[in-house]
Amino acid sequence: MNQQPNIEKLGRYKILGILGQGAMGIVYKAIDERIERVVAIKTLQAGTDLPEDRIAEFRERFFHEAQYAGKLNHPAIVTIFDVEEVDGISYIAMEYVDGKTLEHVIDNESELPVSRMIEIMIEICDGLSYAHKNGVVHRDIKPSNIILTNDGHAKITDFGIAKVSTSNNTVVGTILGTPGYMSPEQITGKSVDHRTDIFSLGAVFYEFLTQHKAFPGTNLTEILYRVMNENPPPVSVVNPMVPPVFDNIISRALRRNAEERYRSVDFFEQDIQRVELTLTMTGSRGMSALSDDTAKMALPSLFNKIGISLDYKKLTMGLSVYSGMLTFILFFMLIFGSHTNRIADTLTAQKPASLEVALNVPDAVVSIDGLVIQTKKNSIKIDSVGVGEHRLVVKRDFYEKYETALVFATGESKKVDVNLKLSPVEIPPGVDTSFITITSNPKMAKVETSTGLFIGYTPIEKFPFPGGNYTLLFSKEDYSSKTRNVVFRRYRNYPVEMTLDKLRGFVSLERVYPEDAGLIWNGKKLQKNLRTNRFSVEVGDQTVTISADGYEDVTKQLVLKFDETIELGDSLKATYGSLLVQSNPSGADIFIDDSEKSVGKSPVQLDLLLASTHRISAAYKNEKRNKTIKVEKNDTITTTIVFSNPNGFLELNSDPPGAYIYINTALRRGVTTPQTIEIQPGFHKIRLTHPKFSKFYELTVRVRPENSTKIEHKFE
Questions:
Q1: Contact assessment for residue 602 and residue 582, using Cβ atoms and an 8 Å cutoff
Q2: What does the DSSP 8-state code read for residue 4?
Q3: DSSP H helices in 213-259
Q4: Is the CB of residue 141 less than 8 Å from the CB of residue 88?
C-alpha cells in the first residue's frame, strides 16, 4: 500500500483539513457533500517496507473497527457512518467530535473537580455497558481512545481490536491491547470477555482521578510486570482530594483475577453513582434533599454500617434529629472510607450478624427494612446485618408477597428458605378447573403457554388452572427451550415432566501444540467432531484440561457461550523418561517408532524419550519382534524382547570374588565372578580358577532357555 498523496476528495467526502497523523494513517476533517455533514475520515496507510502479511493484518483490523463499531448507536460512542476503499485508500467515515482526548485532559487539566470527574466516568460506563450488551468487547480502553466533547460529554472511539463476544471465534493466546491498560488475561494470551474492559477502565479511572498511571514503567517489561504482580497505591493516597470510598471501587476493577472484578460495567457504574449521590447529599442542601421515606430507608443501613442498630418505629418521630445524623455519617463515611469498619469496632463491640436467603424463583426483589437488594440469581448473602429486628420482604410478579420479621443476635447467622406461592389465576366463567403439577430437570424452568401466558417456575404442585388444550413452552437460561402439548381436564391433577438439555459451545485445539492433544471435561476425554474439528462443551463457567500423551496437562477456566467457539493456543510442555531395551538372544538391532534406522544393538538404553507410548521393534538374524511400551515421566522402564530360540543364563559367584571363568575350556577374557552370562541352552563345562588358590573348581551344568543356572563356589 503506497504513501497517501495530498488528496482533496475521497468518494463523496470533500477533505477540509488534517486532524491528526500517525504511523499507520491520517485522520481528515471532511464534509459529506450529499447531506452537508461534517465528518472525520480515518484512512489507512502502510509503508511498502512492511511485509504483505503485516499490511493485510492492519487492513483487516481497520475494517474490523468499522464492522463492530458500526453496529453501535449510543451517545457515548463515536458513530460510524461509512466504510469504503477508493483508489487503493481504505477509509472510515465517522462522527466528527469537536473536543479533546481524556489523555489530554489528564495531562493538562489537573484541577478538574471530583464531581465533574464522576459525571464523565458515569458517561463512559454507560457507553461501554451498551457495547457489552450488544456483544462487543473493546479490548483497548485507554485515555487516548476516549474523547471529551466541547460541550462536556464523553465518547468512546477506536474499536480497532474489538471482538464480538457472541461471534464464532475467540482466539486465546493472541495478545492485543495497550501496555499499562491491558488486563492480566490479555497479557498472558488467555480468553478475554467483557471483564477485560472493566480492568482497563479501572486503570483509566485510576489515572483520571490521580493524574498518575496505575502501572507506570520505563519499558514494556517493567509495565507488564507491574500489571501481573503489583497493586497500585490507593487513589485517595495519591490524590487526597479523592474520597477514600473510591479506593475499594478502583481496586475491585483492577483485580488480577477476572472472577473477583465487577460482574459487569453496570455494577461498576452503580458504585460510582452511589459516591455521586453521597457527595450530593452531603452538600449544601444536606438532608433537605431527602424525603422521609428515603431517609427511613437510608438511615438503618448507614447506622448498621458502623454497628449501630436503630429502632425503626422511633425513626419517623425523630426524623429531623436523624436527618442531621445521616448528613454527618454520610460525610463521615465519605472522608474515612474503608476505615469505618475499624472505627465501628471502637464505637460498638457488637459483631454483625449475617443472612442468607434461598429463593424458589429467579429475579425476585428482596428488601431488608425497605432497602432493595437486587439479585438475578435464586439466592443472596448479606455478610453484615445489624443486631436486632429486621423485616424481610420478597416480591415477584405473578407470586404472592412473602414477608417476615427476623431477629438477629450478636454474630448470629440465619438461612431463610423462601418459597413464593403462585398468585391464583382467574378461571373464566364456564371454563373447567384443572389442577396441574409440573416438574422439570433442571428445576426453576420457566413455564408459559404458546400464547405468552405465564404459568410459573418449576416445580409447580397442584395449581388450579383453566382446563383446555395448551402448548407449554419450557425455558431456562443456558438450556434449550422445549414445548409440550397437553390437555388439562376438569378436576384432575395433571402431571407434566420435562427435561431440558444444556446449551453447548465449542472449543478448538487447532492452535495447540502438539497437534494430537485432546480435551478432558468433567473427568472424561471428549470426542472431537471430525467434520468441524471442535469439541462440544456445555455453556457457562467450565474447567477443561488440554492433555496429550507425553506432555504436561494444562487446565483452563473458560466461560462458554452458546454456539461460540473458543480457540485455545497453548503449547504443552514435553516430559521425558528413559527406556532400557534388552533382548534374548542379545545383539538384536533395535528400532523405535517405525524409524528405519537402528538406535543400536541390545541391550541399549534410550534417554530423553517423550514420556508416552512408543513402538519398539527388534531384529535378530531373520526374525523380527514388535512391542508397545509406555515410557513414564522421569523414570527408566526396562523391557525385554524374546525371540523364538532364546538363550539361558549362568549366574556365577565365588568366595572370594575375582575368579576367572572358563566355558567349554575357553576363557572368558576380562570377565570374573560375580557375573551373569547369557549362553545357548544345553550342557556346558564350567571351570572357575582363582589367582590366590592352586585348586580350580569344575562341573558340567545344563542351561535351559530363559532360565538362570546358579553356580557358587568357595575357594579353600
A1: yes
A2: P
A3: 220-229, 235-238, 245-253
A4: no
CA dihedral sign, ordered 211, 216, 219, 220? negative
- Residue 684 CA from chain centroid, whole number: 72
The per-residue pLDDT for range 153-168, each reduced to its tens digit, is: 999 987 744 444 433 3
Sign of torsion over alpha carbons 664, 665, 666, 668: positive
DSSP strand pairing (493-499 vs 433-441): parallel
Place of cell 450488551: 133
- 471 within 8 A of 447, measured Cβ to Cβ: no
* Residues 274, 125: Cα–Cα separation, whole Å: 14
Distance CA(696)–CA(434), nearest Å, equals 109
Quick check: 537 and 515 in contact, CB under 8 A? no
| Identity at 668, one-letter amino acid code | R
**Residue of higher predicted confidence among 13 and 48:** 13
Q: What share of the chain is helix, strand, coil (3-state, %, to 5)?
A: 25, 40, 40
Question: Cβ contacts of residue 384 below 8 Å, gap of 6+?
Answer: 304, 305, 352, 354
Residue with the larger pLDDT of the pair 346 and 240: 240
pLDDT in tens, 249-298: 999 999 999 999 999 999 999 999 888 877 765 543 333 333 333 333 34
Cell (9 digits) for 545: 484440561
Does the pLDDT of residue 423 top 50, yes or no?
Answer: yes
C-alpha 74/C-alpha 348 separation (Å) is 49
pLDDT digits (tens, 9 = 90+) for 209-259: 999 999 998 888 889 989 999 999 999 988 988 998 899 999 999 999 999
Q: Rounded to an integer, what distance in angstroms lies between the CA atom of residue 476 and that of residue 541?
A: 16
Instruction: Please give the mean pLDDT across all residues of the chain.
Output: 83
Residues 6+ apart with CB under 8 A from 614: 579, 592, 593, 628, 629, 630, 631
Q: Helix H segments across 306-400? A: 312-317, 319-336, 340-347
